[in-house]
Structures are given as structure tokens and as C-alpha cells.
Amino acid sequence: MPNVPFNAFVRTALDWGADRAKIVVAKDIVTAEWVRMKCRYGCDGYGLGHLCPPRTPSPEDTRRMLSSYTAALLFTFDGNHCRNRGRKSVRHRQLVFDLERLIFLGGFYRALGMGCGPCRLCRSCDVDQPCRHPDSARPAMEACGIDVFQTMANAGLELHVVQKRTDPYTMVGLVLIE
């Protein structure tokens, strides 16, 4: 896996607000069926948006798609507390989109970004109409069946479960590179 241009992507991610960034081997990105079940039975936004299950790729579809990539930029964006999640989520999603675009324009035309958590680009999502932000909206990794905790562990990066609403949290982003 060449790392000359990839190192520049890591530096840019950090310069643009990521707290941690690392190039990972795509085969270390883990998908699992149980991840989408956590969306279905643990998130009050399930089925309410274009970027949430069941409208996102299944874990099997994601697994097949990941097999066509060799590398990814994995990065974190640390938030303060739950009460700020909406604003932080939009900034995080913008970072995913901006990094995807940078990598695409860098010659990696198959670059594809993924964020985390429900999309907050709009106050509400009308799933009976086309997405209002198809140019910048990207699905969450977990909505596509990616086990973010195991993927982070495989990359040698810590990620902790949030115990209560006032605990600090970490948002994770990914841009696939090929």
C-alpha cells in the first residue's frame, strides 16, 4: 500500500480538525450483522432517514464493497457532551465530505466517505422525497454494518463506550481509498 500521498491525507485530516487520523488496511474494517440490529433496536432514528437502515447497504453489501478497496483513512473527532451533538455531528459530516473530496481530487476517484450516527444535515428527513443533500450526505459506518469498535481496535486506536449522556464521546469517520 503506497503511503506517500496517504500521509498527506492524514496530516490534512488533523489540520482540518480531526483529533486522530490513521491510514488502515481495508481488510481490517469489520462488518457484522449484529451492528444493524443495534440500529434497529437501539436508536430512535431507525428508519427515519435516507442514511439510516433499512435504506443503507446491508452488512453483506458493505462487506462486498469493502473487498474492492485496499486502504482507508480512519479518523476521530472528539465531542464535548451530548447536548452539543447536533452541531458537532454536522461539523464531523462536513469533515468526512471534505476529506472524501480532497482524496477524490488527489486522483483516487473511488474515494467514499462514511460518518457516524444519524445524519443531522436537515432538521427532519422526508424519506418520501429525494435527499436534499445528496452531494454531501454520507451514511454512518454502523448504518452499513461496520463494527466501529472492532475496526478501531484493529487500527490500534482506543474507543470507549459512553456510559452516560454527559460523558465525552468520540465520533469516527472513514474515507475508503483506492
Would you kindly provide a brief summary of this structure?
It is built from 5 helices and 4 strands. By secondary structure, the protein is of the alpha+beta class.
Q: Would you kindly provide a written description of the structure presented here, covering whatever features stand out?
A:
By secondary structure, the chain is of the alpha+beta class. The protein has one domain (4-177). The chain is built from five helices and four strands, in the order H-E-H-H-E-H-E-H-E. It has helices at 4-15, 33-40, 59-66, 85-105, 148-154, and strands spanning 20-25, 71-78, 112-114, 170-177. A four-stranded antiparallel beta sheet has the order 1-2-4-3, with helices on one face.
Number of strands: 4
N→C terminal distance: 10 Å
Q: Percent of residues in beta strands? A: 5-15%
Range of helix content: 25-40%
Mean pLDDT: 89
The radius of gyration is 15 Å
Biggest beta-sheet profile: 4 strands, antiparallel
Unreliable parts? 81-86
Tally the structural domains.
Answer: 1
Q: How many alpha or pi helices?
A: 5
| N-to-C SSE string, H for helix and E for strand | HEHHEHEHE
Topology of this structure?
Elements: H1 4-15, E1 20-25, H2 33-40, H3 59-66, E2 71-78, H4 85-105, E3 112-114, H5 148-154, E4 170-177
Task: List its traits.
178 residues, 14% strand, alpha+beta, 4-stranded antiparallel sheet
